[in-house]
Each structure stands twice: as structure tokens, then as C-alpha cells.
Amino acid sequence: MIAAKEIDLPKVELIERKTQLFPKTSGQLKRYLDSPFAFYVLLQTNKVIGYLILQNVFPESELLSIAIHPKFQHQGLGNIFLKLVITQLQNEHFTHLY
Fold this sequence. Notes:
The chain is an alpha+beta fold. The protein contains 3 helices and 5 strands. The chain has helices at residues 9-19, 26-31, 77-91, and strands at 2-3, 37-44, 47-57, 60-68, 96-97. A 5-stranded mixed beta sheet has the order 1-2-3-4-5. Strand 2 (37-44) and strand 3 (47-57) form a beta hairpin. It starts with a strand and ends with a strand.
């Protein structure tokens, strides 16, 4: 799990289109790269296979979106991704995740 960068957006947009009924546009996704949002990508062999977007207003965080590419679903990766983010939020002293 790493912070998303602009270079990751085409892969994230592909995952968004494959997993969401009403996918966000590339412009909408680009806005999430800035504060107060936390935008992470999940990598497997340096390939983006998932993403997660939070809106952080300390000490609370709201999960806005999480998705795993369909080829990698049903392997527990979304659960692992979410647990990694929860651990990171706890380490940063966030008290609530919605």
C-alpha cells in the first residue's frame, strides 16, 4: 500500500469503471490526490490492483471508496487493504473510521 500519485490514475480509473455502477471520472479522482483526502493504491508486483480513498478530518476519517480489480477479488485483498489502513490511522492517532 502506497500513497496514490497522478501516474496511478489511469489504472485506478480502469478499476473504478470495472467495479462501480456510477464510476468517478478521471477529474474527480484527481481531486482526491489533495488534502483532506488520503488516496492509496494497493500494488502487486508493482501493478495497481486496488485503491482506497479516505476523507480525513482529525481525529475522524471517512471511507469514501475502496475497490479491488475484479481479477484479484475473492482473495481477501480488500480485507487486508482495509486492515492496513486502519492500522495506519491508529498509528496516526485517529479515533474513528466511518
